[in-house]
């Protein structure tokens, strides 16, 4: 199981002693975290899904986590750009565009408890919570912020990872394999129900990819054929034996995946997509949630044990017997000390020096410094020394 226990946020699925043993009912909403390589069509997909849900009168709660997006073609309820100024982050930390995006997201993640509480407030009013993410998918393979986001969301509501693939750019076996390896590492990192979405099917149908996933021999034949027609274009010949072996390894991984084809441009495939999301939600309820609840119960047990241990050490230090009979310090003093520690915990939790804005819930927006939108050619961002950073 992944590490939902590491979520840096309060865990709303915690059970009170009264309902211990019972599984808490999940909120109505399903969260869809949209991940994919740059240019795979995540933002267009978000726009399509959003308008499809509006047409079914099921408006979603929408979050934009891409700090560098210039034009967002849909209304986001929470937008990272309202909280973190990506160009300012690049400048202050002396970073390039990639580092700027990663750091901006890391900074935003420190406020993810606020995001989560906005999401939780709406989780029984909407059917879907949609999250658009930056194209830097390493965020979800090794960065801490990726785990915090996925674990925190999954601890609050049924969550599905929607991995977008640019189908026309995946027709070469080597590119297909590389994309699948990324998907595989995100799946094993998050352990969440996972859905492969082959996008841009208006340009290239995805049947070839389904064939390669169902039958590794079909993939190996395609690899051989490609070598005969394209020579060394996709890499040296010894790569083929590596890819042949990888196709055998991934065969097991494909068995745990759902895959659908869509066109974010035309809207084709939306019904199949939502059927697959529903199946993924059932998988969350069946497999992920019971594991998560076990982890939460175990964490709670450890916290209680730690608390009891600190109190008994405190009593020893004050030369108080565990029964409290020869108390040199009255019980009221111990209670006061415990209360002080609890209040400090509460204060730490309420530390509120940065704001995450739910745009749909308020009209009195904070006055934010004007964001640097590139003024150079093609929207490039000009640094202080005159360097032009490429438009993100
Ligand atoms: N033909 C076609 N083009 C698409 C489709 N989906 C997206 N595109 C195009 O693909 C390009 C990239 O789309 P985006 O939605 O910006 O991709 P993204 O993954 O959000 O990109 P980053 O924000 O850079 O990570 C745009 O030119 C889109 O118009 C589709 O289903 N069919």
From TrEMBL:
Gene3D superfamilies: P-loop containing nucleotide triphosphate hydrolases (3.40.50.300)
GO cellular component: cytoplasm; nucleus
Top-level EC class as recorded in UniProt: hydrolase
Cited function: Small GTPase required for proper nuclear import of RNA polymerase II (RNAPII). May act at an RNAP assembly step prior to nuclear import.
Quaternary structure annotation from Swiss-Prot or TrEMBL: Binds to RNA polymerase II.
Similarity comment: family membership: Belongs to the GPN-loop GTPase family.
Name of this protein: GPN-loop GTPase
Upper classification of the organism: Eukaryota, Fungi, Dikarya, Basidiomycota, Pucciniomycotina
């Amino acid at each position: 199981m992944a590490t939902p226990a590491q979520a840096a946020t309060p865990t709303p699925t915690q059970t009170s002693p009264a309902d211990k043993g019972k599984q808490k009912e999940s909120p109505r909403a399903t969260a869809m975290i949209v991940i994919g390589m740059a240019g795979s069509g995540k933002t267009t997909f978000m726009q399509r899904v959003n308008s499809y849900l509006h047409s079914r009168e099921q408006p979603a709660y929408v979050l934009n986590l891409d700090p560098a997006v210039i034009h967002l073609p849909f209304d986001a309820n929470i937008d990272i750009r309202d909280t973190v100024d990506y160009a300012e982050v690049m400048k202050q930390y002396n970073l390039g565009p990639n580092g700027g995006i990663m750091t901006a997201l890391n900074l935003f993640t420190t406020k993810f408890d606020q995001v989560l509480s906005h999401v939780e407030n709406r989780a029984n009013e909407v059917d879907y919570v949609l999250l658009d993410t930056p194209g830097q998918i390493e965020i979800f393979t090794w960065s801490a912020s990726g785990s915090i986001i996925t674990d925190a969301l999954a601890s609050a509501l049924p969550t599905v990872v929607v991995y977008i693939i640019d189908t026309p750019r995946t027709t070469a076996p080597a590119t297909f394999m590389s994309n699948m390896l990324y998907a595989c590492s995100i799946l094993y990192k998050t352990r969440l129900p996972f859905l492969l979405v082959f996008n841009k099917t208006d340009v290239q149908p995805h049947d070839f990819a389904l064939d390669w996933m169902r039958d590794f021999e079909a993939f190996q034949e395609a690899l051989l054929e490609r070598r005969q027609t394209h020579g060394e274009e996709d890499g040296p010949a010894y790569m083929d034996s590596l890819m042949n072996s990888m196709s055998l390894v991934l065969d097991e991984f494909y068995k745990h995946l759902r895959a659908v084809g869509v066109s974010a441009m035309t809207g084709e495939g939306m019904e199949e997509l939502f059927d697959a999301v529903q199946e993924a939600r059932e998988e969350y309820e069946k497999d992920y949630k019971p594991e998560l609840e076990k982890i939460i119960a175990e964490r709670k047990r450890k916290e209680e044990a730690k608390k009891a241990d600190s109190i008994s050490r405190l009593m020893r230090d004050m030369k108080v017997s565990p029964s409290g009979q020869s108390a040199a310090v009255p019980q009221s003093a111990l209670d006061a000390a415990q209360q002080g520690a609890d209040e400090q915990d509460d204060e730490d939790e309420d530390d509120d020096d940065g704001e995450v804005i739910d745009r749909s819930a308020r009209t009195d927006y904070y006055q934010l410094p004007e964001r640097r939108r590139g003024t150079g050619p093609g929207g490039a961002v000009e640094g202080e020394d005159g360097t032009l950073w490429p438009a993100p």
